[in-house]
Amino acid sequence: MADLGCVIGGVESINPFWLASAPPTDKYYNVVRSFDAGWGGVVWKTLGIDPPVVNVSSRYGVHQDTGGGVIGINNIELISDRPLETNLREIEQCRKEWPDRVIIGSMMAEIDEQAWKELAIKIANSGVHGIELNLGCPHGMCERGMGSAIGQVPEMVEQTTRWVREAVDIPVFTKLTPNITNILWPAEAAKQGGAHAVSLINTVNSIVSVDLDEMAPNPVVDGKGTHGGYCGSAVKPIALNMVAEISRAVETQGLDISAIGGIQNWRDAAEFIALGANALQVCTAAMLYGFRIVDDMIDGLSAFMDQKGYRTIEDFRGKAVSNTVNWNELNMNFDTKAFIDPDKCIECGRCHIACEDTSHQAIEFNVADSGKRSFTVVDKDCVGCNLCAHVCPVPDCIEMKPVTTKEPYLTWPDHPLNPHKADPISSQ
Amino acid sequence: MPSDIGKNSSSGCISDSDIAANFDDLHKPLNALQAVGAADHCIYCYDAPCIQACPTSIDIPTFIHQIRTDNVIGAARTILSENIMGGTCARACPTEVLCEQACVYNHGDEDPVEIGLLQRYAVDHLMAEGGAHPFKRGEDSGKHIAIVGAGPAGLSCAHRAAMLGHAATVFEAKKKPGGLNEYGLAAYKMVDDFAQKEVDFLLNIGGIEIKYGQTLGENLSLQDLLEKFDAVFLSVGLGSTNKLGLDQENTEGVIDAIDFIEILRQTDDKAQMPIGSDVIVIGGGNTAIDAAVQAKKLGARNVTLVYRRGEAAMSATAYEVELARKNGVMVELWAKPAAICGSDQVTSMTFERTKMLNGKLTGTGETYSVKADTVMKAIGQQLDIAPLKGFEIAGGKIAITADFATNVSGVFAGGDCIDTGEDLTVQAVEDGKRAAHAINDYLTNEGTHNG
User: Can you list the positions of beta strands (E) in B51-152?
Assistant: First the structure.
């Protein structure tokens, strides 16, 4: 069986599955239940300077598919609303009872050196393995000059990271906000500040839905709502890209990555690891189904690694990074065509109408005298866009088959139709 | 109606509460959670085969999508715009041979979308909301149509005529409207007074008047109607039942299945309905199944359904035949009635075995006897042509053109009294709807000519 142990920022963990700083890691009770369930570590819910914040009711809104499945959760909850000392004593207790599990202390403060340093030292003294700087919270706290208000200014990211590095001698994780033009700017700032690792992504700034009776954003708090932080499987594609950007960039190489963003199952986890993540943080999936979901994350990831012959996480970590390239590096001579398996087709016509109305009019629709409906790809018009295969409700009914070609690998900069081909500067 | 049903009542062997439970909805209505789940199963096919399979061409993928988006009232409107009796059809349609048979999931190994139940969910929701009638009466044309028969065809025609701006007076022989929706469906398919609620709902459009106790050929004359109205629509249904042609057919205990079904539908407390102990039902259609299953549900000990050909030739759907078997009905194939036995009360029937010989159904000469205190005949109905003198009749039904016009100028016909295919509620509704448009064309053109 594969070894799921991992190391991130110098911190060793029995498996890469940690609970992210959020409601599930708010107190002793939840954290020991999560350890009992098998989670490798937790990032304790963000601690601030007393007096604790006060939260509102209610706090969550959800984005659902038509079947009622939750695509994403939006929250307007603030950081821990319990006294700092209470949290620290509980952290100590958990560390004592569960010595093989990781606890990272998450913190935030206003942009003030003394505040950051004093709080970091207090948390470090509770015995945590590391400190995570919450520079991402996009709601509430940012209005008080904290969270994303700091994370959106690279200079402040570097400054706060440096302050914590100077104050404590345990690993420092800088948590990044996705609510920024280019993730590399704060990632690079964190590296400059001395971070051992970056954690990303924090939640995406959002209004999840509008209550059309109350005419206010959800969740409605006494007739009014506010923008909140969006998380869950809907944000996974955003997180995958940002993790990949940091893995690929020369400027951020060497930074360990604690990947967060819509990890629901082992496959999501494997994808983040393939793009360079050292470890993973999960929140929404646990909030929807309970801590037990870690069972299949562990089991599924082990099975996948065994099947592929990966003994350790390092064996496949970052394996997809070199294949993640700029558009300009793609092969223009590669071509695929859709192929509809007539034996599997149930004649619903979804491929036809998608192609006919919105793509390339490359799927013909005929009705035989017998009433049998047939859908046929017109190869000369099919550009291989893949839409038909995605809308088809039958698994493996539409296959994208590569067209055999002897043409060499050809990128856009070298393409004969590229008007700037001759210009070596523009084509780069 | 004979009063001799169930002389030897065997209802004693089944409790009143069991009988009540037996007559619960055959298909339980969907709750909101189930409806969303069922709607989510729909692929939203393009040019969907289910639409073509529906005699009234309801845009099924659209209404199911509307349920999915929580636009349930919109879903009901989509249904009712093509089929104003979508509520009854959702309950009574043999969906297994119509829309649900056409569902593309049948090509895979998956169950089809539960279209009937979803349709019921949407229409029931709209009717329960009780808001304004979803359709507007058209601008008054000044024309007045007489409609004979307040069954599905007649009422569908009246409603569409109202939408087109015409006034309609419906003449109904019975005391209640609804036709077979009220009198002819199995009680477990229409468990409450839905047929009446549906008529009330339909009448809310305005411009429709119903007169009861009006029988063509008795107190209602076609000539009068032609003189007083601008057009006439005949939706008289089928009046008389086919006979076995045996001696002693009038023996007590030998009844028409449709009479049994009608009385049962009109009996609120089913436990009060007498039923025999040994019941024979003769016929291979859905009426035979409805009668046999209900006899069993009432507590009859032995119910034997006898059909002269093989199962494939039965006009009842495979689902209905299976339903009969599940309810404990003995389905006896390849046998035809030979004699009714009993002096003043039927005691048994003799059947002769049959087989196909050179493509013809033939008796084998072998006979056998089945004990019976009740015999229900369900071997089809006929158009009563006595009050239809002067009308061209084809194949036992009123002959019509493609525009539902009879050979008598200004008189149109639809429903079971014409031959547009199956004798189904849904077909009758379609006939009425299309006939209303044909009558509208006729009245409009007439106006042009006269003007």
Answer: 144-148
Chain A 358-377, CB below 8 Å of chain B: which residues? Answer: 365, 371, 373
Per-residue pLDDT at B423:
84
Residue A6 annotated to the active site? no
Contacts of A67 in chain B (CB under 8 A): 36-37, 40
For the domain covering B32-129, report its CATH number.
Answer: 1.10.1060.10
Q: Is B233 helix (H, G, I), strand (E, B) or coil?
A: strand
- The single residue of A137, A382, A392, A397 carrying the catalytic annotation is A137
Helix A236-248 and helix A266-274: axis angle, to 10°? 20
Chain B positions contacting chain A at CB under 8 Å are 36-37, 39-40, 43-49, 68-69, 104-105, 107-108
Sign of CA dihedral A290, A292, A293, A298: positive
B11-23+242-377 CATH choice from 3.40.50.300, 3.50.50.60, 3.90.1150.10, 3.30.70.260: 3.50.50.60
What chain A holds in terms of domains, given with CATH numbers, is 6-315 (3.20.20.70), 328-414 (3.30.70.20)
Spatial separation of the C-alpha atoms in residues B371 and A70, rounded to whole Å: 62
Residue type, B156: S
Tell me whether the CATH fold assigned to B11-23+242-377 matches the one assigned to B32-129.
no
Residues 242-301 of A with CB under 8 A from B: none
* pLDDT higher than 60, residue B356: yes
E strands, A261-420, in order: 279-282, 336-340, 363-367, 373-377, 398-402
Considering only CB atoms, B104 lies closest to which of A66, A67, A348, namely: A348
Each residue's pLDDT expressed in tens, for chain A with a length of 428 residues: 899 999 999 999 999 999 999 999 999 999 999 999 999 999 999 999 999 999 999 999 999 988 889 999 999 999 999 999 999 999 999 999 999 999 999 999 999 999 999 999 999 999 999 999 999 999 999 999 999 999 999 999 999 999 999 999 999 999 999 999 999 999 999 999 999 999 999 999 999 999 999 999 999 999 999 999 999 999 999 999 999 999 999 999 889 999 999 999 999 999 999 999 999 999 999 999 999 999 999 999 999 999 999 999 999 999 999 999 999 999 999 999 999 999 999 999 999 999 999 999 999 999 999 999 999 999 999 999 999 999 999 999 999 999 988 899 999 999 999 998 866 554 44
Closest among A87, A21, A36, A95 to A291, alpha carbons compared: A36
CA-nearest residue to A351 within chain B is B46
Cβ count within 10 A of residue A296: 14
Report the distance separating Cα B108 and Cα A52, nearest Å.
59
Does residue A98 belong to the interface with chain B, where contact is any CB pair within 8 Å? no
DSSP letters of B328-386? Answer: T-EEE-SEEEEEEE-SSB--EEEEEEEEEETTEEEEEEEEEEEE-SEEEE-S-EE---G
Side chain identity at B396, as an amino acid letter?
Answer: G
Model confidence, pTM: 0.90
b/e B375-391 (16+ beta carbons within 10 angstroms → b) = bbbbbbbebeeebbeeb
Cα A364–chain centre separation: 40
- If DSSP codes are grouped into helix, strand and coil, which group holds residue A257? strand
* CA dist list (Å): B107 to A129, A341, B60, B359: 58, 13, 18, 33
Query: Does the distance separating the beta carbons of B47 and A349 come in below 8 Å?
Result: yes
Pairing of strands B167-172, B208-212: parallel
